[in-house]
Design brief:
Blueprint: E1 5-10, H1 16-27, E2 30-32, H2 35-44, H3 48-53, H4 64-74, H5 79-82, H6 86-104, E3 107-110, H7 114-117, E4 124-130, H8 133-144, H9 148-170, E5 182-185, H10 186-205
Parallel strand pairs: 1-3, 1-4, 2-3, 4-5
Helix pairs in contact: 1-10, 2-6, 8-9
């Protein structure tokens, strides 16, 4: 059997990363989140700090189709790639890394338009983890030690950032059920419930 990949889109503080880590433990495969940035930086020759500063941030630069057409014909070292805006370089480096990971091993990838990068990969389970605002506010307050107002502001800002990034690069709609195989409410299911649903789906698909 070939490799399979579970991609996890997630609202801020909906515990999507926790779901990924739990799946990783159960399935014995790696979960890539920030780790993906380190590898993409190494393979592209770009500074890792830049990847973290630009991570999942939206863009308003020139047409995405032009970027992809240029990159597909050149790669990292040719002048057209070198002349691209920084955020496009970051996206394309991650895009390449995601595809390489899928070819090398079964794994879990959190965020970063992984479902789009692997749209032609045969064995993927594309999931989106969401939860009501109150649940996420409590999680944010606990993790970052901030008050309710600050927590809500962080959530709205981060969700807007992720949505803009995903919608721009994937030409799909972030959080829309039609963009994924499974959308799961972690406030109702909990981390374990989300994991169970994904594992059931995997079993049905025979991956």
């Amino acid at each position: 059997m070939g490799n399979y990949v579970i991609t996890i889109g997630r609202e801020f503080e909906s515990l999507g990363r926790d779901v990924g880590l739990k799946l990783s433990e159960i399935l014995g495969i790696k979960c890539y989140d920030k780790e993906l940035l380190s590898r993409a930086a190494k393979e592209s020759g770009l500074c890792e700090e830049i990847f973290h500063s630009q991570d999942e941030k939206p863009t308003n630069s020139f047409l995405y189709s032009l970027v992809m057409d240029t990159y597909s014909a050149t790669g990292y070292t040719a002048a057209p790639f070198l002349d691209m805006p920084l955020n496009h370089k970051i996206f394309l480096a991650q895009f390449d890394t995601i595809k390489k990971l899928a070819e090398e091993e079964s794994c879990i990838i959190v965020g970063r338009c992984a479902d789009y990068a692997l749209h032609d990969f045969p064995c993927t389970i594309n999931t989106f983890i969401h939860a009501d605002l109150e649940f996420r506010i409590k999680n944010t307050m606990n993790e970052f030690q901030v008050n309710e107002s600050k927590a809500k502001d962080m959530i709205l800002k981060k969700d807007k950032q992720r949505s803009s990034y995903y919608n721009y690069y994937s030409n799909k709609k972030w959080g829309n059920a039609k963009s994924y195989d499974l959308t799961l409410n972690s406030a109702k299911l909990g981390v374990d419930g989300c994991v169970e649903m994904i594992l059931r789906f995997k079993e049905i698909m025979k991956y």
